[in-house]
Fold this protein.
Amino acid sequence: MNKYGKSAIYATQLILSGEVLFADEAWNIATTEFFTTDPKACPRSAFLGLCEADLIKGVKQNHINKPLRDDTNKNHAIEAVALLSEDETFSS
């Protein structure tokens, strides 16, 4: 798993444990664990978009501090989940 995947999992764990309240704060903390330089914005937008769309189990709307604009990569991530869910090969 790459650093962004690890960051997403760690950020989710921070939220679910109650250690961190907001998804954006959890992402920032998580990425400092895996990156020595500033991480890219696109994976952040994808993670926060999935959180906003209620697509990460246990992460609710009250974990969203400030919703992302619609012109970020959040929509790409949400659309990818929708497409994967439609195909029986990939859906659970």
